[in-house]
Amino acid sequence: VTSTHIRPDSRRQPHRRSVIVGLKHVNFAFSSQIINVYTQNVMLIVWDCDGVVFDSNTNKHLLFETFLQQHDPEHAAERYAYVHAHPELTRYQLFLQWFPDDSMYMLRKFNIACQVMYERILPNARICCLASQHDSAIITNSRGEDVQHAITFHAADDCFKSGIFGTPTTKREHMEVLIARKGAKPDVFIGDGRLDFAVSRTNQSDIA
Fold first, then answer.
1. What is d(CA 29, CA 1) in angstroms, rounded to the nearest whole number?
2. Which residue in 72, 94, 110, 82 sits closest to 11, CA to CA?
3. Rg of the chain's alpha carbons, rounded to an integer?
4. Each residue's pLDDT expressed in tens, for the chain with a length of 208 residues
5. Cβ contacts of residue 179 below 8 Å, gap of 6+?
6. How far apart are CA 186 and CA 207, in angstroms?
7. In terms of Cα–Cα distance, which of 182, 140, 157 is closest to 42?
8. What are the beta bridge partners of residue 21?
9. How distant, in Å, are the alpha carbons of 12, 31, 36, 38, 141 from that of 170?
């Protein structure tokens, strides 16, 4: 098995099930023992949700695209492209910006659809197994309540004992709070996108 050095993608590729580990590309088809090589001597691990714990990127993007087409067909294509170009922005921020008069209603409607989506997708068993062996937390740009609902629905609460943190608070802010609470930086941040790489580099996590 060969791990190749890669640069973080300029945009997400939701069809690819992968993690970025120390700038090494590790495909999920590989044995969990290979991923365990990078996590066996660490304490705190932070996991991204979509594309890592759940193979949900494709479904989440399609759900959001359909939602925009239903509620704002005139600007749907433009706004969907904007989302891809600005992965640091949460959907919470975007709804406030795009639908100022109905943002809370729109968010609730979208969040309900997300919860149903997560119920239909099993979390990655290898990731949950590894997470349960370490002090693990999830930091995500998805709504925290939706991810918590999914983890509880699939009976995986014991895998992420240090918590599940999502929007409206940003990943960077959650990471700062987690570091302050733990008194140390995470040893590992495992994610699948440019924002995850940037957050890990900002907080000097050893593996991103």
1. 11
2. 82
3. 17
4. 222 223 333 344 333 333 334 333 334 443 455 455 555 667 788 999 999 999 998 999 899 999 999 988 999 999 988 988 887 788 888 889 999 899 899 999 999 999 999 999 999 988 898 899 889 999 998 999 999 999 999 999 999 999 999 988 888 899 989 988 888 788 888 888 777 888 877 765 544 4
5. 185, 186, 203
6. 9
7. 182
8. 24
9. 18, 32, 28, 26, 7
Q: Note whether 70 and 62 are within 8 A (CB).
A: no
88, two tokens: 């640091």
Q: Smallest Cα–Cα separation from 48: which of 180, 160, 154, 206?
A: 160
Task: Look up residue 122 and give its DSSP letter.
Answer: P
Write down the residue that tokens 């590992």 correspond to. Answer: 188
Give the separation between CA 102 and CA 146, rounded to whole angstroms: 20
CA 183 to CA 185: how far, in whole Å? 7
Length of the chain: 208
DSSP 101: T
Q: Is the pTM of this model over 0.85?
A: no
8 Å CB contact between 147 and 174: no
